[in-house]
Amino acid sequence: MEYRTLGRSGLKVSAISMGTFTFGGVGPFGRVGNQGVEDARRLVDLCLDHGVNTFDCANMYSMGVAEEILGEVLEGRRDRVLVTSKARMRVGEGPNDEGASRWHLIRECEKSLKRLRTDHIDIYFIHEWDGTTPVEEKMEALDRLIADGKIRYAGCSNYSGWHIMKSQMAAEQARKARFVTQQIHYTIEAREAEYELLPAGMDQGLGTMVWSPLAGGLLTGKHRRGRPAPEGSRQAAGWTEPPIRDLDRLWNIVEALVEVGEAHGVSAAQVALAWLLTRPTVSSLIVGGRNAEQFNDSLAAVNLKLSAEDLAKLNEVSKPPLIYPYWHQGQFARARFSAADWVLHEGNEPPAW
User: Fold this and answer.
1) Which residue, of 61, 81, 338, 342, has the greatest Cβ tally within 10 A?
2) What is the domain count for the chain?
């Protein structure tokens, strides 16, 4: 396993983290997976054997059951690993049962600690933007949780670039703890994060943790052009995340992944993961799976080294267009770009006049 420093913190996370989205199978989560304690234990053991040290969860996964299962499975070896969790989503019918208010974040953290059978959460994320709660209140609540020893580091998830910058500034002005990481959706098919999120992460020293790095299985090579969704897949069960806006582009990317994978004797999934591990600020990829075979394949991606030719092929078929103001900056500002600017513009030439 490879270990990477999480942003500007001193924390080392495994390049592959284990996602627990499939633990519990309560409600709509059952369409993705429904692993109970013993199945979860076998998969956690497998990940530990491969050197994984980071396990990702959230309070709303199967309405708390995923945290309960993870807590039970990790009991007796909690000090060997890092545990993450999140709060913000609705978890009840009351007016304060969602959001990022001080009241909600502290209450949900304390509930998560009990379910996880631990006295602290290593990385605690605000799971989604809350535009009605002042950023000063959110950042103060996270700082209080750190001061109380209930969490070690704070992060955000599914924020926009300006949400991140506003939050970081509020924390800095109040001399409170800042975000050290963001958890985002980012794949070779969905490269929108390169417009704002990765540049903001580089500028602010945020490590990037990626959720659903295989786009819900669409980038594994099992889904192909003109074929129905494979039996047993999320898509066959009616799961619609992430959205795909250009199917032809998706299949072109999948075909390139398969071609590169065949040249290396590995799966398309490993190529998609290995590509992400070359991207700026990426610290860890959160992978899930229903069985040991899927986890073994994903974990092997850390050993795949893509050549310059491989990367050029993959980047060419997937690069995002230079939307405004980036095409204009590409024309007139390139001579004064920072490293953060080059996250998007490297290899992405503006159209000629």
Assistant:
1) 61
2) 1
